[in-house]
Each structure stands twice: as C-alpha cells, then as structure tokens.
Amino acid sequence: MNKRIASQREKTGINGHTRLAGVVGWPIGHTLSPAMQNAAFRHHGLNVAYLPLGVSPAGLAAFCRGLRPLEPAGLNITVPHKEAVIPLLDGLAASASVMGAVNTVVCRAGRWIGHNTDGFGFLASLKGILAPQGLQVVLLGGGGAGRAVAFSLAQAGAARITLVEPDSGRRNRLIRDLKQRLGYSAVVAARPGTAELRSALDRCALLVQATPLGLQARDPLPLPEPWMPEGICVYDLVYGRQLTPFLRLAKRRRNRVVPGWKMLLGQGAEAFRLWTGKQPPVKLMQEALLSAGGLKEI
What we know:
alpha/beta; six-stranded mixed beta sheet
C-alpha cells in the first residue's frame, strides 16, 4: 500500500468499516459538535466519523429517508429541525416525548428513536453557578431549545418562568404542555416591549436567551439594551468564537454570564453515552470543543 495513503488512513481512522454520525441543522457552519464528538469516538477507539450535515427544512424528510440505509451510529438534531423531525422517527424516549422536541437520535436495529439531552446539558452546565430550585426565570424563546430549558427548569423546581415567545402558537403550546405534562402552572407569558416583561426582568435571578438571535452578525439584540438586568445570571444558548453581543452587554451590566457552549458540551456528552453505552470523556470533549472554536473558559 502507498505509504502516504496508509499514513493518512492511520491519522483519520476512516476506512471501509467507518460508520457515519453527525449533526443535522440549517445553517450548520457554526457547529463545534464534530470536534468534541470525534474526540470522544477516538478516545474509545470507535470507528465513527461525525460530520456536520446541512439540511434545509424543505429537504429534511428526503434526507432522513436517504440516510436510513447507511445505518448511522447516531445523530444530533439542531435548529430548526428539533420539532419537525419527530414525525420522521420510529418512536420517542420519555425525555423527547415530554418536551416535544428532539436533539438526539439513537439509531439501532433499523429503528430511529428520538431523545432530548438539551435539558440534561442545560442543568449540568448550571452546577456550581446557581441552583434552579426557587428561581425566578425569564426565558426568551419557546422553540426546540427553549422547550428543553423550560421543562428542565420546571422539573428542577423553578419558582416562576416568564416566557417571551412572539409566535402565539408556539407560546401557547409550551405553556399548555408544561401544565398538562408536568402539572407545572407557574409559567406566564409576557410579550416583547411590555410592562409585564420589564417587571419580570426586574425580579428574575436567571435570564436565558434561547432564540437563534446572535447566530448572524447583523442580528438585533433580543432585548432593548436598557432592559438588561444587573447582578443576575445571564445564559445565551447561542455560542461562537467570542461572547455574543447579548452576553457582552450582560457582562457590562455586571452579570454572571454563561455561554451556550457549556450546554452544548453537556448535551453532547449525554448523547455520546446514549449512542455508545460508554462513559463520555467530558474533559477531553471540552478541550476539543474549546480548541476548535477558539473559545475560552469563563
């Protein structure tokens, strides 16, 4: 065998037995999941290549049909597919069924089962920062990630969640599901720009930004700048090489800030455990994530 080709195969680990895994989203260019998941697969000597898989909303169903024969080792699902993917699966684990959103698919024996590890990752990332029990929370966004945050906070005993979601259908579904599926009634809606929202911001101990705003450089802030509270914990699920404009504003207001890569790490570690049954090498995954993204621990 050509020595150069053999050397390249040894470095990448890709050969005729390599299985595919990946993250499905649109857009997908910002993802750092491949760095941490490939580090975990290599650590355990598993012959899997984890790739970013850019799939538009219009192409999601066709993509899933076409991918099934390849028998992937596992999939992550990200914006905007976390709810849309559900009808394309063979079943849901309790985590995804309760939350109504999927971010992890376990592919085994020809069946695709949806799970949700976002809530697990979110709560794991709060450890050592603040305990959710008894907190007043303002949650911006009620999409797939926002649903996971809301359900995890409700299950962890948050005293009150104020939900800001302009889409009335999405907003009403989340409030209804929290009440019906968890018996959690301490959730209220506040519309952007209202006195109710301003009052909730003044009282909250945790502010969570769960919309896609911040993924693009020209995105507006999800809150008017003067409305940013002071002296609380501010969490932005969006992540990038630098702090998002939202977190930079929060830091200027002397808030404790938490970047979205921390939730990414937590949910990714739990997804790896579900796919493989093996203990995720969390420290190694974090190092790979930070290195790939040029990120810093804060």
